[in-house]
Structure formats: C-alpha cells, structure tokens
Amino acid sequence: MERASIKQRGFHLLVILGMIVLGGTESMAESKVKMGVLDCFSGPFSHSGPAITAGVKFAVDEQNAKGGLFGRQIEMVIVDHEMKADVALRKAKKLILEDHVDFLQVGTGSHVSIACSKLAEANKKIMITTHGAAHSITGSDFSRYFFRLGHNNYAYSVGMFYLLGKTPYKKFYLLNMDYKAGRDFADDFKKTIKNYISNAQVVGEDYPPLNNKDFAPYITKVIKAKADAIVTNSWGPDLTLMIKQARALGLKTPFPFVAVFAAEPHFGIELKDDLVGNWGVALYDMRIHTPENQRFVKAYHEQHKNDKDFNTWWPYGVIGQAYCGWKTALVGMEKAGSLDPEKMISTLEDFSYQTIVGKWKIRKCDHTALYPLFGFQVEGGWNPYYNGSIRPDVKFPWYGPNYVTIPADNVALPATADYNPRCK
Question: How far apart are CA 33 and CA 159, in angstroms?
C-alpha cells in the first residue's frame, strides 16, 4: 500500500510539473509582443523588403537588448505582400486574426498601406508605414490607428525643388510610375516648382506602368522636348531601365535624372557610371557626421557585413530611414506605457524624438512624421562604403562628399483641411 501511494504521489507530481512546464511555455509565448511585418520579398521589386526590414529589425534588436517593450521581447512575424494589395490584405488578416500580432509595419507600396489601413482600424491595431508615400494615406484615407513614420511624396518633391533651385536647369520632363504615389509626386512638382525656379517649364509628362519594359518611346519624347532634366520618383528596376535606355538613346552623363532613389546599391552596381550626375533626396544619409549616426553605421555594418546580398551591407537611405522611424515609434510606445491602442495613439500624436540624424515629430492632425531631408549628387570616383569593403566585384559610384540639409519646416506636407479635415 505504502509503495503504491508513493508511486501515485510521484505520478501526480510529474503531472503537476508537466502542467507547470506547459503553462510556462504558453505564458512565455503569450508574453511576446508581436509585430506583423508586410513587405515585398519576391518579384521585380524584391530588393526593397530585405533592406527596409533590416532597418526595422535593427531598431527592434536594440529595443529587445534593453528588455523589449514593458519587459516583453518583440517578435517580428514577416510576410511577403508581393507588391500586391489583395495579397497584402489577405496576409494582414492572417497576421491579425491568427497570429494575433499587436501592431503592423508596412514597408513598400502606398497601395498596400491603403488596402491594409482600414483592416487595422476595424481590428483596432496600430499600423505604421515607413515607406508608403501617397498623400491620401494620411489624408483622404486617414485612420486614427495609422501612422506614417517615413517618407511622403510632398517632402521628396519639395526637397528636390530646393536642390533644383541651385542648378541651371529650367526645362523639366516628368516621367513617373502610373500609380498613386507617382501621380502625387508629379502634381506637387507642377504646383510648387515655380516657388523655387520662377521661369521653370514642364515640357512634358508621362506615366509608364509599373514594371515597364520599354522606355524608348518616352525617352524619344524627352529628347524631342529638349528637356534639361528628367524628374521622377520611379524606383527599382523601372528606374534602372529608364536610365539605361536613356543613356543608350543619347542622354549621356551629365544629363541628370532627379530621382528619390538615386543611389540604391542594386541600382548603382547595375548602372555604374551611368549613375553619375544624378540628383536625389533622402531621409537618411550615412555621411551625416553626428556621433550617434557614425556609431549606428559602424554597428549596423558589423552585424551585416557578411550578408549574402550586398544590398544590406551598409545602412543606406531606406534602411536608415526605417531604423529612424521605428526608433521613434518604440520610444513613443514606451512612453505610452501600454500596448493599449488608445494610449499609444494619444502618446504618439505630437510626439517628438531626436533621431541619429535630426529631430522627428509626429504631427497630431494626420499622424505623419516631419523631419529634415538630405540632398546629394552622385559623383564618380571611389565609393568609400561598398567599393572593396567586402567583395572586389561590388564597385559603383556613390554620393559625393557633400550633402545639403533641408530643414523639416521647408518640406512639411501642408496641414490643410482640403488634405485632411482634421488639419484645420
């Protein structure tokens, strides 16, 4: 009897211990703060997702190293939206309803941000975009649960005008992708350029489809119009092919392209010297000589220098931008003291943070970040970051040694009631 009771007690103890272990495992899983990350990891624009996500992850890793959010580690659940709004919406639903993420991050694609924003609002989930640029995201499609902590078309447009005012160019051809962000950009140019260049002329405009395969008809029109420069916010393979075909058809360097993404690594290594002379603006630049930025560049590169894809070796524009955006968000969330969406909304509205490259402020009426921009021109010669840093085959021109800082007030999207009724 005694021996049997001892065995029974031992069995019961094992059952109890098992329940404790299982319960502990479950509570550990529940204790994670989950971030759903949607970006493009396949198809012709697949270089963008890994780069943007690398910047987000660096900010998250820093937060986790100091204890996470409210003592809970942050887990990134990353999915490929394929640059398609319907795919993004389907996967965002799964992230919210099945993976139970606490908030969403969307990188590339204004159309993706617009598609997912209402879903996030319906489920009371905070959603942040670092790279959705269309005005309407924080204007006519505004949601209280949505924050834009990254670039918008107006800021880039006006930043470019600021640069162009310092050049001899007067006649411009607008050549932009045929989607919301591309048309917003062109509209801003036409409305605003004469504030910077009084005798500026738009001598033509076209809107090729995304992933266009033949720019020759458009370039022929540019040549016929005798433009001084092509102004575009096109990116990825579209911008690469546009410049390649333009050079082949006679628009040789120093004929300039004024482009937002004028010196991305994948873009640069393919174009090489065809890239020289181009102008661009960015929210982030590795050359900014604050001690904080230089420490970030060094630490990021140390972590990524053995990446298979050289696109993520160094924290160029979109990577640094994503990092700054999520550093701002995470510090704001900490201040809110809770994952409760209402508390986070009230804290993030009018929240300011001194990033590694300048002060970012989230405007209350439209939840969009205001920040300084940095203008540059691509020059020939030695690239101090990529050339020879890891592999000898990675060599392409980069920004020159000088850059122009454009203050946040100069490029802030006008807070008018026409744009967003909350902005009065």
Answer: 37
Identify the CA nearest to 156 among candidates 167, 146, 164, 168: 164
Cα dihedral 241/182/157/115 (nearest 10): -130
DSSP letter string over 83-105?
A: T-HHHHHHHHHHHHHTS--SEEE
Tokens of 394: 């990675």
Please provide the size of the chain in residues: 424
Cα dihedral sign for 372, 110, 413, 193? Answer: positive
Q: Report the 3 state secondary structure along 334-358.
A: HHHCCCCHHHHHHHHCCCEEEECCE
Question: Tokens 């990825």 label which residue?
Answer: 236
pLDDT, tens only, 20-74: 444 444 344 468 999 999 999 999 889 899 999 999 999 999 999 999 999 999 9
Could you give the CA distance from residue 416 to residue 344 in angstroms, rounded to a whole number? 24
Identify which of 80, 132, 124, 82 has the alpha carbon closest to the alpha carbon of residue 101. Answer: 124
Average pLDDT, integer, range 101-129? 95
Coil, helix or strand for 357?
Answer: coil
Nearest residue to 252 via CA among 276, 218, 236:
276
Residue 177 has which token pair? 């992708």
Please state, in angstroms and rounded to a whole number, the distance separating the CA atoms of residues 222 and 257. Answer: 12
The Cα angle at residue 140 between residues 352 and 110, in degrees rounded to 5:
75
Mean pLDDT over residues 140-168, rounded? 91
Rounded CA-CA distance 276/170 in Å is 20
8-state DSSP, 178 = S
DSSP letters along 45-61, please?
Answer: TTTHHHHHHHHHHHHHH
Closest Cα to residue 231, out of 170, 317, 285? 170
Residue 404 Cα distances to 156, 275, 283, angstroms? 14, 19, 12
Q: Model pTM greater than 0.90?
A: no
- DSSP-assigned states of every residue in 227-265: -SEEEE---HHHHHHHHHHHHHTT--TTS-EEETTTT-H
Q: pLDDT tens digit string along 361-381?
A: 999 999 999 999 999 999 888
* CATH of the domain spanning 154-285+374-409, picked from 3.20.20.70, 3.40.50.2300, 2.40.360.10, 3.40.1160.10: 3.40.50.2300
Tokens linked to 281: 């603006």
Read off the tokens for 64.
Answer: 């986790």
Task: Tell me the C-alpha distance between 383 and 265, whole Å.
Answer: 11
